[in-house]
Write a structure and sequence with these properties.
Layout lengths: L4 H19 L5 H16 L1 E9 L5 E7 L3 H10 L4 H8 L3 E3 L6 H5 L13 E11 L2 E12 L7 H27 L14 H4 L11 H13 L6 E4 L6 H10 L8 E5 L5 H9 E2 L11 E2 L1 H4 L4 E5 L6 H13 L1 E2 L8 E2 L3 E6 L3 H6 L5 H7 L2 E4 L10 H16 L4 E2 L1 H8 L6 H15 L4 E2 L16 E2 L11 E3 L2 E3 L1 E2 L19 H11 L4 H7 L4 H10 L8
């Protein structure tokens, strides 16, 4: 069965995602390689697969295989260095055999192939070198049944090269871990993953939805480069986790990863924080201090909430990005740095540029590669896996055993989650902490008693929608009416006939100008309410 280009591209993304998860697991090396080959068998209908690694003796040894019996594995292992893997290892170049029945080496040495034909279909061999840097450390090869007579192998080769590159990184980490932890360098059965990579590897970024698979593919594509990356998305969608994943998948993984929250610092403090200061530069500067740019030299600097910095500081930052040098506060000596920049924002930067709130030249400088993080409400199919991920982590940290009932999971799947993954994580921790017994049930969920962090439960299903929708900057959102304990007076609700601007004005009048209270009346966060006021040019002072 031939695959369309769109389907084939989707399969490649899924394959890369599944393999990246396997490479992050603390598995024995042969088991890890077998699982990788099994992924190809599932998604690309490969008949056999082999991965060979160079031994300390310099010879090629067969380490992992799929689609073989024990006898076939032993037979292949005996001649792996003399067959096609040996040729690939010596030349460092990929090899494609469109029809293995016409390749003598398969008949004489590649004896692990039992049947050279598969029900009248062609069987092709694709093999690529596994490298760490420029050094060839192994060979990966697959036998694939070809259904389409005009099949092109360039996509197969490119996919195998990407996977081989990931395997090469795992082999390098295995070697380094073996030396640093005192394990025998030649022992192929232990792969230790450095602790600092464990939590932020892509395998721990949960997401099987198509939108998250797109994010994973963009991360793998952009991580090896030096390009500046802009992460965009609502608060709580996981931008910092993705930034760390990009760093640890890049050639700068051994360098520092430095994070700065631009919104948490005033302009003066931000300048000193990023660029450092000389002794005596200002009152209280008793010592020379390196800034975050210097500390990130050779690594990655992550500027979170970059959309919140002032126009004056934007000009200073632009100069540093253009010239890759700066002076400390109070100094005049230029300091050069080699830093890979990743930025993040939840603002609409394009609108900020048109309104004169963000410099267009800085926008073009940081918007080289944009990765959009989808809100949780747009990838609800990931919620069960996320819930289980956070629950497993909680149980591990607190030495408990908890499960979640289907009814409770149903509630969580249909929440609106304006705080996204961060809000879901907090909800799971709070619920697990307050749950007695071993099962989280519907009555344990804070939403059941209207005690959710966002006060109300947003649902999609029509049978649960309420009679009176609430208008917000996100549109009309149905809200499930849940019982309160004890019964209390209901909060006032705006008329559904009001425009969005009039709804905001109504909320301000009800709260006497207190924005936090007004935001709660409309089930918005203060930040969302503030953006809505700016959008409609509403001044709060008159209230």
């Amino acid at each position: 069965m031939s695959k369309t280009p769109v389907r084939n591209e989707h399969l490649q993304l899924v394959t890369i995602y599944e393999i990246s998860k396997i490479l992050g697991e603390p598995l024995e090396l042969p088991k890890m390689l077998r699982k990788i080959l099994n992924v190809f068998a599932i998604y690309f209908e490969t008949r056999q697969g082999t991965i060979s690694l160079v031994h300390e003796s310099g010879e090629l040894h067969l380490v992992g295989a799929s689609g073989m019996s024990g006898d076939e594995f032993r037979k292949c292992r005996e001649c792996v260095g003399d067959g096609l893997p040996g040729r690939i290892f010596k030349t460092g170049m990929p090899i494609v055999i469109p029809d293995i029945t016409k390749e003598p080496q398969f008949q004489h040495c590649q004896g692990c192939t039992v049947e050279l034909e598969s029900h009248g279909r062609r069987v092709a061999y694709i093999g690529v070198p596994i490298k760490t840097g420029r050094e060839v450390v192994g060979v990966m090869g697959i036998e694939r049944v070809i259904f389409n007579p005009s099949h092109r192998f360039d996509e197969d080769v490119n996919l195998l090269k990407m996977v081989a590159n990931l395997i090469g990184q795992a082999v390098r980490l295995h070697r380094e871990a073996g030396v640093s932890e005192g394990a025998p360098a030649a022992d192929p059965h232990v792969v230790a993953v450095p602790r600092r990579r464990e939590r932020y590897s892509l395998e721990n970024v949960v997401g099987n939805s198509s939108s998250m698979q797109k994010v994973f593919a963009e991360v793998h594509q952009s991580a090896p480069s030096r390009s500046t990356i802009l992460l965009r998305g609502e608060s709580g969608t996981g931008k910092e986790v993705i930034a760390r994943s990009i760093h640890y998948l890049s050639p700068r993984r051994d360098g520092p990863f430095i994070k700065v929250n631009c919104a948490a610092l005033s302009e003066t403090l931000l300048e000193s924080e990023l660029f450092g200061h000389e002794k005596g530069a200002f009152t209280g500067a008793q010592f020379e201090r390196k800034g975050r740019f210097e500390l990130a030299n050779g690594g990655t600097l992550f500027l979170d909430e970059i959309g919140e910095i002032s126009l004056a500081f934007q000009a200073k930052l632009l100069r540093v990005l253009q010239e890759r040098e700066f002076e400390r506060v109070g100094g005049n000596r230029p300091i050069k740095v080699d830093v890979r920049l990743i930025t993040a924002t939840n603002r609409d930067l394009e609108r900020a540029v048109t309104k004169g709130e963000f410099r267009s030249d800085l926008y073009y400088r940081i918007n080289v590669v944009s990765i959009f993080m989808p809100p949780l409400r747009e990838r609800r199919e990931d919620i069960p896996a996320l819930v289980q991920h956070f629950l497993t982590r909680y149980c591990s940290d607190n030495d408990r055993e908890l499960d979640i009932a289907p009814e409770a999971m149903h509630i969580l799947k249909h929440c609106y989650w304006p705080g996204n993954v961060r809000e879901l994580e907090n909800c799971i921790e709070r619920t697990a902490t307050m749950t007695r017994g071993g099962v989280i049930r519907e009555t344990n969920i804070p939403c059941h008693f209207n005690r959710c962090l966002t006060q109300v439960l947003h649902v999609l299903s029509t049978e649960d929608s309420c009679e009176t929708p609430v208008r917000s900057s996100f549109g009309t959102v149905p809200i499930k009416q849940v019982p309160m304990e004890p019964e209390s007076a209901k909060a006032p609700q705006p008329s559904p006939d009001l425009s969005e601007r009039d709804t905001l004005l109504w909320a301000l009048e009800q709260s006497r100008g207190v924005q936090a209270k007004a935001a709660r009346l409309l089930n918005l966060s203060p930040r969302q309410f503030g953006y809505a006021l700016q959008k409609h040019e509403i001044r709060v002072k008159k209230f």
